[in-house]
Each structure stands twice: as C-alpha cells, then as structure tokens.
Amino acid sequence: MEQKIAVQIDDLTVAYNYKPVLWDIDLTVPEGVLMAIVGPNGAGKSTLIKTILGIIKPIAGSVSIYGEAYSKQRKLVAYVPQKGSVDWDFPTTALDVVMMGTYGSLGWIRRPGQKEKKIALEAMEKVGMLAYKARQISQLSGGQQQRVFLARALAQDASIYFMDEPLQGVDATTEIAIINILKELRKSGKTVIVVHHDLQTVPEYFDWVTFLNVKKIATGPVKEIFNDDNLTQTYGINYKVAVNK
Amino acid sequence: MSHPQIEIQLIAAIVAMACAIPGVFLVLRKMALISDAISHSILPGIVLGFFLTQDLNSPLLILLAAFTGVITVVLVEFIQKTGLVKEDTAIGLVFPALFSIGVILISKNANDVHLDVDAVLLGELAFAPFDRLMMNGTDLGPKSLWVMGSILLATIILLLLFFKELKISTFDAGLSSVLGISPVVMHYGLMSVSSITVVGAFDAVGAILVVALMIAPAATAYMLTEDLKKMILLSLLFGVLSAISGYWVANLLDASISGSIATTLGAIFLFVYLFAPKKGLISVLYRQKQQRVEVSLITLLLHLNRHEEESERHINHLQEHINWHAVRAKTVLDLAEKNNLVEIRNNIVLLTPKGLLFTEKSLQYILSNKDEKIEPMKEDFFLFRG
C-alpha cells in the first residue's frame, strides 16, 4: 500500500537577521507516524515547526501539508506551542483555553457556542482535566497546564499534530498520560510531530525520528536510524560516553 | 447641577469608557508603554490636521493624528527588529522625535491660533461644553461628546465582534496565527483603535492623562478578577467612577479636572492594590504569614513524631531544639493544641491520634511534593483557614 505523505519540506532555509537557523532542509513525514524531532539547543527544532505552520517565513524553500500550502490546510493541523510562550496569569479559565482550539473551525467573528463547549469538555475529559475546567489557569500546576494545551490541540480535531516540547516540566505520571494520548492519536491514523528533549525515551515513545542541527542529519524509523552514529553527528560529542556517564 | 456640569461629567465618563476597553488589552499584552508613546507622538498629526481643518474635533484631524500613532508603533517595531536596541529604547527614541516635530510645528506656525502645547498635553475639560455641534441652527450638544461617543460606540461594536479574536491573539499569538486569526491584523487593529481613542480624548483630558485612563482602570481590574469579560466590565466601572468623582474633587478643590480624575484613578488603584481579596498586598502578606505558620506547625509535629524522649518534648526545650523564638513557639503550640493535634501534660507535648494521622499525611506530602496531597489536608485539618 502506498503510504500518504503528511508533510513535505523541500530546500527549506530560515534565517533570523540573515543568520541561518535552518539550512537547506529536505524532509518527508509519512502519514500516521509518531515522530520526535531531536537536536541540541539552538538546533532550530521549534523554528522548524513554526516555519511549517507559517508563523515564521522562510527565506527559501517550500512546505506542503498533504500536497497543498499550509494556508489551505489549516483545518488539518493542530499546534501545541511551548508552555512558556504564553502568559499563564492571563485572566481566563482552563475550559476557555481549551475552547480556543475550536476558534479555527469557527473562523472570524462567529462565537463559540454549545457545540464548541461540548468538544472542549470532551477533550478535557480525555486528558483527565475535567475536574479543573473552571480553574483559573495560573492556579494549575505545570503538568496540568501542559494537559490543558494538549486538550486544546485535541479540540482542534486535526490530522496532523505539532507539539513543541509537550513533556517539558511535567512529572512522570503526566508524561506517561500525555504519551499514551499521543500513541492513541497515532493509532487512529493521525500524524504526530513532537519536539523532544529526552533522548533516553525516544525508542520507547516514538516510532519515527528526525535528527536536526541547523541541517537535517537523518530522518526515518527509530528502529533503523536511532543509533550512536547519528546521535554523535547531531550533538557533536561522542554520544555513547555521554549516555553512560 | 448646572447643564454644563452634567455635560462635562458625561464627556469625562464617555472618554473614560472609550479608553478603558483598549486599555485592558494593552495591559494584558504588556504594552502599556506603547500607549504613552502614542499619546505623545500624535502631536505632529494633530498640528498638521489642525492646519488643514482649523477644527480640533474634525474627523480628518482625528484620522491623521491616529495615523501618526500607528506610524509610531511601526517605527518602534522596525527599530526593535534590527536587533540593535531593545523595545524600551526603541520607544524612547521614536516618540520624543515625533513629539518634538509637533512642538516645533506649533511654535513656528501656531502662535496666533488656539492651539498650544499646554492645551494638547493637559486638555481642558471645563471648556469642552463651549464647542457645540450646530445643525440647521439647532444645538445638538458639545462636539467632543459626539466625537467621543462615536469612538466609544465603534470600540464597543469592534469589541463585541472580535472578542474571541482579541482574546486568542493576546493570549497565544502562535496558535492564533496557526488557526488563521492573524495576530498582526489584530495587533494593528488594536493599535489603530488605541490611537483614535487617544486623539479623540486629548482635547478633553490631554494627551498625557489619557494614558492614566487607559492603563489604571485595567490594572485595577486585573487585581480583582480572573475573567477577561469581568476585567473589561470592571475597567469600565473604574473609569466612570473616577471620571465622575474626579470631576467633583476638582470642583471642591477648584483644580484641574483631568488632573483630579487621574489622581482619583491612582487612589483607586492604590486602594485595590492594598486590599484586593486575592492579589492585594495585604492579602498576599497575610497568606505568606499563614504559610509560615503552617510550615512551622508541620516542623513541630514531625519533631514530636521523631523523638520519643521526654527531654525533646518538653515545652521549654522546643524553643531550643527547633531554634524558635518564644513567641513563635507559643503561637505554633497554641495552634496545634487548638486543632487537637497535640496535648500538653506536665509541660510535655504529646501527639494526639489526629496529630499522628496529620503527621503521616504531611510526610506523604513532603515526600511526593505534590500539591494534590496537601489540598485535602488543608480542608481536613487546617481549621484556622477561612
């Protein structure tokens, strides 16, 4: 069976003030994988996601989602930004944040109603946050905030999920809960792309991996390419030593 | 109350409301300083508009000046994007430059007309009722009432239409952009509305005090609520409240109306800052004190739990062993006793069964360091909490 391509990136170069952050990236992500993007700090992992989603404009190259430009495929895509990118003191509740996931399908001006509320509540139930729906978001723990973000992405009901470090600053229980949800998404045929920091857990959590350090080092199934060679190339140190230390 | 008095209060209240709405979003976006910049840099726009129209309430003047306000934002962002200076520096570079152009234009050309720097900076609400809108010989009321009324109406309509968009682009610009709700459009939309409001309001309250009307009500409301809609409603309320009471303070002291309004705004903020139930300074200090006592209580109970020997449990030795001052030791002991966590026999402190249970749960909390463990504990044991 021919596998569909979820995300196709060709010759992508991104620069901040003419300083390249991503250099000539070619990347093909097949549909239905749970993929980790790994690389050292400053490797351009978040930038790659933001460029795919049109938040950052590349200076060269192209991105397509199921064969079309991103602006035509918005409704197929969900996004979980880094938790630190928003102000958690913002005056709003957990439920309200999750409802924001439905704003895309609503479009401009139309307001969320009962249908959107129902979607949001279902998403909160899936991540085990229903009990906290009325809580002001600053009153949530780091792990709970991360779950709220995940619920918001679920409320987007997309085909491809982009997540920027969804496991950052969460405890072990939350981490497992989040990973289980990601695995369920993959099982139901969704594509999940995650910026990930903890190399130890890559083989356990993901089936696909991309090594990135300004340039793409490698991409493919974890079983085939998650090895010392690629790790060393990406991180620039003898990785075996680093892990065993 | 005389007719002009009512009119002045009405204008002040409408200006306050028109400023409060964009103010909420400026505060939440941490852009309070931008409103200060806009309020100054509209001066050249006002002067040019005045030369063209000879009327401070002309819509053309308002649009021209508001455009200068948006230009300020564009310039600040342009300078900031070069990465050579930070945002605050960029703001500090742009608005004095534009403002000074306005000052030069006034001093060169406007000596003989009714436009001086004082009028622009400080405004004069008391004169507002004299400039009337006449149509076919009928008096329709003060012009500035019509101008600010229209601006307020437009702001409210935009707020109702784009509430969802304003919320998401303020809270999470990244997701907003991904969903197709352009944060750039929302940003410049908000900047345009803010600029138009500042220009409309400068005639009444002056270009500088308008900043107080934008920022203070929102900052005050932020201390009191955790709901965006309530924050907007409270801001409107505080705006109107200080506009009206500020007017009467000015009346009483025979002082500047806009100055009195701004002072009232400051006083209300100070009051809320001190006494707000959750985020207020006093409440925060009180909570910290309670937490200190709670930690001391747990420390005491753990100590009792660990030491069987009587010497460690003697009331006089507690001070020495846990290294507490006498007052504190007494407070903590009283609290523990009042809650039936300990009993004191012959000056020896003993844990009650309830105290033992509590200590065990505390240990669980300390070991797991999870908030969900301490929340029910507080309800079960900490009877002194409200």
Walk me through the structure.
The complex is a heterodimer of chains A (245) and B (386). Chain A has ten helices and nine strands. By secondary structure, chain A is of the alpha/beta class. In chain A, helix 4 crosses helix 5. The longest helix of chain A has 16 residues, at 172-187. The relative contact order of chain A is 0.18. With 386 residues, chain B is mostly helical. Chain B folds into two domains: 3-277, ABC transporter involved in vitamin B12 uptake, BtuC (Orthogonal Bundle), CATH 1.10.3470; 282-381, Winged helix-like DNA-binding domain superfamily/Winged helix DNA-binding domain (Arc Repressor Mutant, subunit A), CATH 1.10.10. Chain B is built from 18 helices and four strands. Chain B has helices spanning 3-28, 32-41, 43-53, 59-81, 87-109, 117-122, 143-171, 173-178, 183-205, 209-224, 228-253, 257-275, 281-306, 310-313, 315-322, 326-338, 353-368, 371-381; strands at 132-135, 138-142, 342-345, 348-351. Chain B has a two-stranded antiparallel sheet. A two-stranded antiparallel sheet of chain B has the order 3-4. Chain B is elongated. Chain A binds chain B through residues 17, 50, 53-55, 71, 74, 77, 79, 81, 85-87, 90-93, 97, 100, 103-104, 106-109, 111-112, 136, 138, 141, 152, 156, 171, and chain B through 28, 30, 82-83, 161-165, 167-168, 170-172, 174-181, 222, 225-228, 230-231, 370-371.
